């Protein structure tokens, strides 16, 4: 965004209200318009009854002694600013009560019933405060750059493993795919991840992990360089189409590189020879059905045991951040602090009925 002098301003330097079209925080499903209208009218009725009770408690301070119906009538014409003048406060106490109670209630009453423009302003203010609060508190989240086929699959895997949707931030230039991400409860940032200010809006400096999944390898390299510069402590997992570009991503700072073309090619090759193997691999890679590969910390009872003899089907041991496969000498026994990679059975009651498979 450029100012009137032609100097481009960083997006993260803009005030929060200027980010309403860039950052979107997921919200619960809104109620229907009739329910909102009924709720607003209910609030107005509560205000009317409150004012009536206040007036009725001081009913002898007006031009005539008031019944509760008179108090209700006076409150209605006062809050609606009609003011016929047939009933007026005559004592100082009643006038002070009108100034301190009835007048503020009148303002709220009118805002509830005829505040269409005010409602729009209130909505924008609420969203601005929501963005402000989110930017201040977001920590240890995952940023997914690119919400194409690879990005959506990565998000589905994380959600299937129990990651809170509010802890996933999607960055993309396509508002259509961002709407899809928002419908799944994800925070979205509209903009190009090749720009550092867009990455900062996604809270990249405080992110725990970053998934780099754009459609082009050169974009993946540039984004990885920018992410590593801004978030030196984050775990970066990047995807490339061609294997010859893998070293570029590793040199750019990626911790893990997934080669999409080779992985898909191997699966296609296996499918022609042993299709059941491909079916099982897809099952293991789908955390919301059948079996899945998961990681867990060992229990105190398992310390010193051989992982091959545990109840779970163990594939490897993670020790001090290093993965040892089950057939390696380091896997003869597990040590305190180790984690196990194992095959987990997904039970039927764990499945999300709303999951779009």
Automatic annotation (TrEMBL):
InterPro entries: K_chnl_dom (IPR013099), NAD(P)-bd_dom_sf (IPR036291), RCK_N (IPR003148), Trk_Ktr_HKT_K-transport (IPR050721). Signal peptide: none annotated. It is found in: Cell membrane. GO terms for cellular component: plasma membrane. PROSITE patterns: RCK_N. The chain crosses the membrane at residues 40-57, 99-121. GO terms for biological process: potassium ion transport. Keywords: Membrane, Transmembrane, Transmembrane helix. Residues 139-259 form the RCK N-terminal domain. Gene3D superfamilies: 1.10.287.70, NAD(P)-binding Rossmann-like Domain. It is a multi-pass membrane protein. The keyword Membrane applies. This is Ion channel protein. It comes from Corynebacterium sphenisci DSM 44792.
